[in-house]
Amino acid sequence: MMNFEGIYCFDTASVRFAFYPDGPGGPRAIAQISEETLHDEFGVREIGEHLLDACQEHFNAIEPAAVARYRATPGRAITLTIEDFGLRA
Asked: What domain of life (predicted)?
C-alpha cells in the first residue's frame, strides 16, 4: 500500500494530493478535493490541516473518483466535488 501524499491548501480550502492512475509504476497525477466536499460527502468534521487525516482515511473512495476524472478529462486540472461521488442513499 502506498503512503498518502497530500497537503492542505489554506488559500483554496482544499487538500491537494497525488495519485497514480496506472498503478505505482506509472505516472504521478495531482488532484484536489474541496473542504466542502469532505464535509458534505464524507461527514468530516475536521478543518484546516486536520483534513489531511480525513482525506487519507477516505482515500479508498477519493482515489477512484480522481482516476475517473483523470481518464474523462485528460490534461485538465482535477478538483473533486460532491458531483464526483454520485448520490448517496
From this structure: Bacteria
